[in-house]
């Protein structure tokens, strides 16, 4: 088993000794242990291990780290093990892990229960959990890793202040089989997994149903954006009067002004966007009770 830890993630540097101890405690055989200072180096280690025939690759980091890991492991036989070391750890929650229990995550790897889960894909890039267009992408890009390291989820709230005041709404055209939306909005969220932060994107979103879940509103005002974020915090976003929730295997999204696309917290693509679900594209260690289904 190969272990790769992204030390740029919020908790990683302070947890390295704990990780070594937990791997020994649970009897996880480690053939190689790599420490990567950034996403690019982590991606190289993961790809190299997969090409060398590693049966399992345990990756430690947050959602941005997992985005790079799953893009490298999509449709390969290598099994991904997840050690949640980030701020939100949405992907870890979507596969049924406790977002903050490292001991339990290592125990899941040791038990060896494997499931095949879906991945999302946007413009050729695979993603684990969610992609955002608009305000959420701007907030993700404006949130320094150094701030996340000491303030955790509060970092996103701090970084959101300026974008909330300066971000301009945009016109978007969204198409899927059997439907379409033409609207002006502040934000579009497309989720493969269940969670956006620690909140379900939609009540029935899962990571194994062969569909993507799209959430947006046609309220382009700043007050509307604030209202949406508050509603997410209260798990009431789908009840908003201007909300649109759609489940589909494919989405085509065009915007009048080009928008950056944040993939699991990292700015990796831009519109126009072609979203696809990749059914059962990743093998991953999961708890015995299975992935989070609601």
CATH topology of the largest domain: Tumour Suppressor Smad4
Number of domains in the coordinates? 2
Assembly of the depicted chains: single chain
**Count of runs of 4 or more consecutive helical residues:** 9
User: What overall form do the CA principal axes indicate?
Assistant: elongated
CATH architecture of the largest domain: Sandwich
Mean pLDDT: 87
As residue ranges, the low-confidence spans are 144-156
Largest sheet: 10 strands, mixed
How far apart the termini lie comes to: 31 Å
Give the percentage of residues in beta strands.
25-35%
What sequence of helices (H) and strands (E) makes up the elements?
A: EHEHEHEHHEEEHHHEEEEEEHEEEEE
Proportion in helices: 25-40%
* Helical/strand content category: alpha+beta
CATH structural class of the largest domain = Mainly Beta
What would you report as the Rg, rounded to the nearest angstrom?
Answer: 18 Å
For the structure shown, list the relevant keywords.
18 strands; Rossmann fold; 294 residues; single chain; 2 domains; 32% helix; ten-stranded mixed sheet; six-stranded antiparallel sheet; elongated; alpha+beta; Tumour Suppressor Smad4
């Amino acid at each position: 088993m190969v272990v790769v830890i992204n030390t740029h993630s919020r908790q990683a540097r302070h947890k390295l000794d704990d990780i070594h101890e937990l791997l020994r405690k649970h009897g996880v055989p480690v053939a190689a242990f790599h420490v990567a200072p950034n996403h690019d180096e982590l991606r190289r280690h993961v790809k190299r291990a997969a090409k060398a025939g590693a049966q399992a690759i345990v990756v430690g980091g947050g959602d941005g780290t997992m985005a790079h890991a799953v893009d490298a492991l999509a449709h390969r036989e290598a099994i991904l093990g997840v050690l949640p070391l980030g701020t939100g750890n949405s992907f870890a929650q979507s596969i049924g892990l406790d977002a903050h229990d490292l001991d339990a995550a290592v125990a899941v790897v040791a038990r060896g229960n494997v499931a095949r889960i879906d991945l999302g894909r946007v413009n050729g890039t695979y993603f684990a959990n969610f992609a955002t267009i608009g305000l959420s992408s701007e907030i993700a890009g404006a949130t320094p890793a150094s701030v996340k390291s000491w303030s955790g989820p509060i970092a996103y709230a701090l970084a959101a202040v300026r974008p909330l005041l300066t971000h301009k709404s945009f016109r978007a055209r969204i198409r899927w089989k059997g439907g379409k939306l033409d609207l002006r909005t502040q934000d579009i969220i497309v989720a493969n997994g269940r969670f956006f932060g620690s909140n379900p994107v939609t009540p029935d979103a899962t990571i194994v149903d062969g569909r993507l879940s799209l959430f947006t509103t046609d309220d382009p005002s700043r007050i509307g954006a604030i209202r949406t974020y508050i509603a997410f915090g209260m798990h009431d976003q789908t009840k908003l009067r201007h909300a649109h929730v759609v489940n589909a295997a494919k989405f085509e999204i065009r915007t009048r002004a080009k928008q950056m696309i944040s993939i699991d917290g990292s700015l990796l693509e831009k519109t126009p966007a072609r979203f696809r679900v990749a059914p059962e594209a990743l093998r991953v260690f999961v708890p015995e009770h299975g992935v989070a289904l609601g």
